[in-house]
Amino acid sequence: MTGQPDATADENVPVVLRMMRRGMWVYVRVDYAALYGTVVEISGQRLSEVSGGPLAPMWATVDLHEIPGLVVGDARTWTPPAGGPAT
Fold first, then answer.
1. Does residue 14 contact residue 29 with C-beta atoms inside 8 Å?
2. Among 8, 3, 54, residue whose Cα is nearest residue 31
3. Please, which residues have CB within 8 angstroms of residue 49's CB and are 6 or more apart in sequence?
4. Is the pLDDT score of 3 beyond 70?
């Protein structure tokens, strides 16, 4: 063991969240997050359900305890749903 970091690990890959916004499920790539007590401030890009590409900037606050249930993947592994998300 050389003490060198694992070259395959990348801690800077953004996660993708599935969030309810204005009565609709949307997908958000998280580019920035800050913790304030039990509230997480999130800034990122809303993603297209068809192409997976960015649609618009998005900002939201989420309760810290909700985060595990919102994560649907990371920016490398997430693929847009066929026909939209299940509700």
1. yes
2. 54
3. 27, 80, 81, 84, 85
4. no
Mean pLDDT in the chain? Answer: 84
How far from 10 is each of 2, 4, 7, 15, CA to CA, in Å?
A: 18, 14, 8, 12
- DSSP for 26-83 reads EEEEEEEEEEETTEEEEEEEEE-TTT--EEEEEEEEEEGGGHHHHEEEETTT----TT
Burial 27-62 (b: 16+ CB within 10 A, else e): bbbbeeeeeeeeebebebbbbebeeeeeeeebebeb
Confidence grade of residue 61 (pLDDT, cut at 50, 70, 90) = very high
pTM above 0.90, yes or no: no
